[in-house]
Amino acid sequence: MTGLAATINTHKKAYYDELHRASTSNYIESWMAWFASIVLEAQSRTIATISFVVEKARFLDGLKGQLNPRQEKVVLRMLAEGIDGFQGGLSAQNYRVITGATSATATRDLAELVALGAFSRAGQNRYARYSLNLKRRSGSD
After folding, report:
1. Which residues contact residue 118 at a Cβ distance below 8 angstroms, ignoring those fewer than 6 apart?
2. Considering the entire predicted model, what is its pTM?
């Protein structure tokens, strides 16, 4: 789906409301203003997507050869969520479900990901949540 189509899709109800309003009168200035704002929003989202792809590539390049297969699987799964990310963060339980790891292995893997700077951690114990640290830079930057 293109950036414009995706943006319109997120505002589907407003799109149809504005389209209906414009089609029942000859007054289209409101429709044109609304549509222009959607085009600008789509442009901003496209720029953000491009930035995300660049950050993602840098992030993965900086971690090359440092992750075990479980960690790599989880990192790739989180990156697959795109710009909006893994909603609510990753819990140790999520990690175990995705990888099939034991609790001890999940705890160790997550601690390593934090130590590498790949993940940021918020909260403690069972309330800990992990998020990607895309602003992480490799030593070559």
Report:
1. 59, 63, 67, 71, 75, 132, 133, 136
2. 0.72
Architecture of the domain delimited by 67-141: Orthogonal Bundle (1.10)
Residues 12-22 pLDDT 10s: 999 999 989 88
The structure tokens listed for 141 are 């930057």
Structure tokens at 137: 């830079």
Name every residue whose Cβ is closer than 8 Å to that of residue 29 and which is 6 or more positions away in sequence.
Answer: none
Give the domain ranges of the chain: 1-64, 67-141
Q: For residue range 102-127, what is the model confidence (pLDDT) as tens digits?
A: 999 999 999 999 999 999 999 988 89
